[in-house]
Amino acid sequence: MPIYAYRCEACGFAKDVLQKISDPQLTVCLSCGKETFKKQLTAAGFQLKGSGWYVTDFRGGTPPATGTATGPAAPAPTDTPAAAPATGTKSD
């Protein structure tokens, strides 16, 4: 569900509101009551709902990877092709 930023042009009151895309825009300021409450143009914000990807799912377990290796290093891949095996033919 998107999070929209609203600001009152009369009193300057600002509030972030969690709304469905299909919900009508708010127009009445929650602070002064005037119909000057406008949706602001901001970076997209959203909230994930349902089972699955929550911040709390990974707390208390193993810490996330930090980008440093903790075990033995894997051998680096080589860019050179392997030598072709000899075919065993003799030339006279």
Automatic annotation (TrEMBL):
Biased composition (Low complexity): 60-92
InterPro entries assigned to the protein according to its UniProt record, in alphabetical order: Regulatory_FmdB_Zinc_ribbon
Ranges for domain Putative regulatory protein FmdB zinc ribbon: 1-42
Stretches for region Disordered: 59-92
PANTHER family given in the database record: CONSERVED SERINE RICH PROTEIN, REGULATORY PROTEIN, FMDB FAMILY
Highest classification ranks of the organism: Bacteria, Pseudomonadati, Pseudomonadota, Betaproteobacteria, Burkholderiales
Name this protein carries in UniProt: Zinc ribbon domain-containing protein
